[in-house]
Amino acid sequence: AAPSIRGIPTMANGQIGIPWSSAFNVKGLPPFTLSNINKPSWVITEMKEPTPGSGDWFVTMFGHPNAAGSTIPISFDINNGCGKVRFSGSLNVTDGASANFTGWIR
Questions:
Q1: Cα–Cα–Cα angle for 60, 70, 20, nearest 5°?
Q2: pLDDT tens digits for 48-98?
């Protein structure tokens, strides 16, 4: 079977200097590959089967955000021998300092 994405994945938002990760489940017949990848340089994308032989495959994305921004795009194709499916999403990254600043207390 061609790959398909289970559910509607949403990506967690990030903060500069704090490790970020997000993942979603993929159905279909392995092996899977990722292609046409569009992402920030700090994001690492991988296909994983956390429990070998289980048939539960996930796309995992992780890294350390290094620049603030909103609606930062991440997209790629998930491929196997039967076809492909496109993932397209976005995330927001805050700089942390301004997000957590509440003012000076005297």
A1: 30
A2: 999 998 889 999 999 999 999 999 999 999 999 999 999 999 999 999 765
Q: How far is CA 55 from CA 3, 51, 52, 105, in A?
A: 12, 8, 8, 55
Pairwise CA distance, residues 6 & 60, whole Å: 14
* Closest-CA residue to 78 (of 99, 94, 102, 61): 61
Give the tokens for residue 35.
């292609």
- The answer to whether 83 and 4 are in contact (CB under 8 A) is no
Residue type, 101: F
Q: Which helix (H) or strand (E) holds 99?
A: helix 97-100
